[in-house]
Backbone:
């Protein structure tokens, strides 16, 4: 027995945790179960830790007021899906960019930018916009795999611009201001959108894809009037946060109420039965989110207790203590992580590990939040996870192998935008420093 206890004491729990997580994921276990089971096994094997903590830490991790904001913005996005808001945004986007060569591709991107300011989740964007735009683009002569690639990559804007679910979760685990993170996402989001439009234009000129119509200020005014009310939601959220009128959670509640009034009261596109369906779906997603938060909190607590974040930071600094080299290593790590782990668990599990290193190097946590989000956004476009790509492929009825070639054009542009954001922190920090310096 003494020998067994000595063996447990000398066990390298860092290697054990990595081994178990990889094993459980390869076995097909859901990520929340993989994280929780790994943490529980490590704790029960560690004689220095009371196993009763397994029932305490998860509750504390999920019992956070800020998480309600993520839930409420998910409700807002689902209400917008059911309320036929997408068609209004598509018509307005068409009036702005439909006259450019490859018009519908640009409409797709600009619509995603608008929708991103309402939904906060890439999967909601891909499902809502893709189901409308991909068939329309195919009818107008666009290659279906190109249409799917445009939809998948532009949906990533939803995790960059406010009210991004990923930025809310980053704020939760890092203690960073939501208001500063939301404003920080605006310029990088516009940069990525502009890059995607440039890539789509280049392909459209090469393939001679059609324009939609001549530019008309009257069309802009008419469609803008129809889309005005939905577009007030992101403006209202940012105004309230920056003005100190309400918190992020209250902003989510107000956004959900406004979305409900628009969908059920103004446009009358959501019935009581549909509303119940929206709330049921939001409830299911909330349960998944809270479960992941709970299990990742337990694992994070144990990792911190074992000083694994500090060991990782020291290991990286042993390679180099140069700011740019460490930043490159962090980018490569999160880019790879995004290919194998969904954005939500990746942020919850990995960001707390690297925050001490980020602070030690003097990297602004708001800037780092955008770096992490962009990396994970690019990662979620690549197999084996590729959740957004899988959705658009299902809508387009194509295999994932068919989308890879056109997808590579847009991923290349997104990688270029990521490099620019890394090189010029002011792109992320200019607006927060201007509009939210006191947060």
Residues:
């Amino acid at each position: 027995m003494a020998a067994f206890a000595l063996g447990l004491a000398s066990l390298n729990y860092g290697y054990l945790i990595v081994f178990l997580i990889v094993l459980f994921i390869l076995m097909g276990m859901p990520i929340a179960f993989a994280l929780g089971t790994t943490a529980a096994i490590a704790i029960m094997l560690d004689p220095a830790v009371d196993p009763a903590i397994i029932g305490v830490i998860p509750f504390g991790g999920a019992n956070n007021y800020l998480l309600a904001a993520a839930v409420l913005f998910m409700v807002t996005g689902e209400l917008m899906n059911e309320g036929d808001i997408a068609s209004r945004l598509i018509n307005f986007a068409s009036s702005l960019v439909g006259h450019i060569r490859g018009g519908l591709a640009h409409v797709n991107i600009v619509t995603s930018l608008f929708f991103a300011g309402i939904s906060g989740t890439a999967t909601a964007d891909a499902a809502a916009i893709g189901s409308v735009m991909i068939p329309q683009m195919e009818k107008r002569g666009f290659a279906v795999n190109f249409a799917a690639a445009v939809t998948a990559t532009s949906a990533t804007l939803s995790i960059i611009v406010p009210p991004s679910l990923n930025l809310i979760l980053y704020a939760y685990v890092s203690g960073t201001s939501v208001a500063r993170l939301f404003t920080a996402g605006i310029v990088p989001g516009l940069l990525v959108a502009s890059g995607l439009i440039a890539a789509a234009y280049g392909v459209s000129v090469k393939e001679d894809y059609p324009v939609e119509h001549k530019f008309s200020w009257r069309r802009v005014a008419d469609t803008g009037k129809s889309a005005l009310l939905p577009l007030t939601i992101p403006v209202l959220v940012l105004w309230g946060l920056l003005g100190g009128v309400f918190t992020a959670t209250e902003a989510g509640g107000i956004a959900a109420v406004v979305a409900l009034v628009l969908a059920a009261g103004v446009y009358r596109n959501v019935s009581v039965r549909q509303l119940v369906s929206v709330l049921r779906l939001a409830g299911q997603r909330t349960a998944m989110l809270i479960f992941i938060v709970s299990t990742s909190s337990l694992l994070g607590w144990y990792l911190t207790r074992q000083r694994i974040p500090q060991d990782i930071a020291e290991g990286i600094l042993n390679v180099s203590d140069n700011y740019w080299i460490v930043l490159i290593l962090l980018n490569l790590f999160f880019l790879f992580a995004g290919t194998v782990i969904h954005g939500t668990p990746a942020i919850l599990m990995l960001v707390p590990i690297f925050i001490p290193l980020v602070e030690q190097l003097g990297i602004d946590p708001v800037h780092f939040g955008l770096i992490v989000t962009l990396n994970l956004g690019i990662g979620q476009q690549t197999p084996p996870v590729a959740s957004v790509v899988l959705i658009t492929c299902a809508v387009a009825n194509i295999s994932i192998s068919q989308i890879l070639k056109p997808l590579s054009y847009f991923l290349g542009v997104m990688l270029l935008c990521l490099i620019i954001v890394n090189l010029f922190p002011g792109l992320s920090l200019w607006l927060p420093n201007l509009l939210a310096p006191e947060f």
The chain has one domain: 64-289+307-435. Residues 1-10 have pLDDT under 50 and may be disordered.
